[in-house]
Amino acid sequence: MTENLPATYVEGFHDLEAVKKMEYKQLGKTGLMVSKLSYGGGPLGCHYGIPDENEAIEAIRFAIRQGINYIDTGPWYGQGKSETIIGKALKGIPRKAYYIATKVGRYELDFDNMFDFSAEKTRKSFKKSLERLGVNYVDVLQVHDIEFAPSLDIIITQTLPELSKLVSEGKVKNIGITGYPVSVLKECIEKSNINIACVLSYSRYTLIDDTLLKYIPFFKEFNIGLISAAAPCMGLLTDQGPPAWHPADDDVKKQCKNAVEYCQNHGSKIVKLAVWFSMQCKDIDTHLIGMMNVKEVESNLATLHDGITDKEQQLLNEIQNKYLSNIKGRHWENKELTIYWNSIKK
């Protein structure tokens, strides 16, 4: 076997040339060599429309053969639907061919049952996740959106210790945390004595928000693996536009829509520019992008391998100058938290 191939390479299963083309990087202290482009299972739930299960299964299998070796999901996405589809896709694929990550802590659509960070629920939920995925261990188990816990102490004293027990039982290889405010991820790592190996940050290194850059030196200092998700800003930077629930302010949506239309009028898709831009950050270990079909996988692989043309680079500069630089509030931090806690108090 060629020296530079990742540990996930399986002769006779993978497309060898595609794997050779893929860039792999160590995910912090996890020991996992992950593909630069990773597979996001978020759209396989219910938050971005109803996925076609057969198309999704085909896309996942195709992605793994092409060298994408990191797959992320969670029970929150369609109340287990994403995990179920991914589990079906993984049947018959050698277990060593991929790394799988799932989550605990965020579950139901209604506010009263949306979050539960207790040790009991964590263990129960994770057992169900293993069943849906059809595996007996996961490579990464993450606490989902930790900012929604009543206090960070609950994460530190209940959730993370339970994850640590699952590690000692061999059911989990590495522990991670996710959240929108990057400051909360940093604070959790500083305060916890549990070995947090990686963080998942979403929509924080994009064409409209580079907040993540401020925190990269901290994560690197502690050898924390860095997963950056949602380069297209959860639909803002796509031809389809954001889903109705998107928490961004109207000004953000308007400027992004203007940029989308400007790209369309010039024969380009903004999502390609958004994905390419995010991938230029060398300090991010893997870029997690939700993909619902083979066409989307092929498109993102092409962006990764071939980059953008001079014309597209010029177009990118134009939309930044004309529209995206005019955005006032670049993020929606605390907005969802406020809505959530106001609803709970009722």
Structure commentary:
The protein is of the alpha/beta class and 346 residues long. It has one domain (16-237, 272-306): TIM Barrel, CATH 3.20.20.100. The chain is 42% helix and 14% strand. The chain has 12 helices and 10 strands. Strands 3-4-5-6-7-8-9-10 form an 8-stranded parallel barrel, surrounded by 7 helices. Strand 8 (196-202), helix 7 (212-221) and strand 9 form a beta-alpha-beta unit. This is NADP-dependent oxidoreductase domain-containing protein. It holds the Pfam family Aldo_ket_red. Residues 36-319 form the NADP-dependent oxidoreductase domain. One of its GO terms (molecular function) is L-galactose dehydrogenase activity. InterPro entries: AKR, LGALDH-like, NAD(P)_OxRdtase_dom_sf, NADP_OxRdtase_dom.
Name the helicity range. Answer: 40-55%
Spatial gap, N to C terminus: 61 Å
Model regions low in confidence, pLDDT < 50 over at least 5 residues: none
Question: In the CATH hierarchy, what is the superfamily?
Answer: NADP-dependent oxidoreductase domain
List the secondary-structure elements in sequence, H or E: HEEEHEHEHEHEHEHEHHEHHH
Count helical runs: 12
Query: What is the 3D shape?
Result: globular
Q: How many beta-strand segments?
A: 10
Give Rg in angstroms: 19 Å
The averaged pLDDT comes out at 96
Structural class: alpha/beta
Biggest sheet character: 8 strands, parallel, barrel
Strand order of the largest sheet: 3-4-5-6-7-8-9-10
The CATH class designation is: Alpha Beta
**DSSP strand content:** 5-15%
CATH topology descriptor: TIM Barrel
Named CATH architecture: Alpha-Beta Barrel
Total number of distinct structural domains: 1
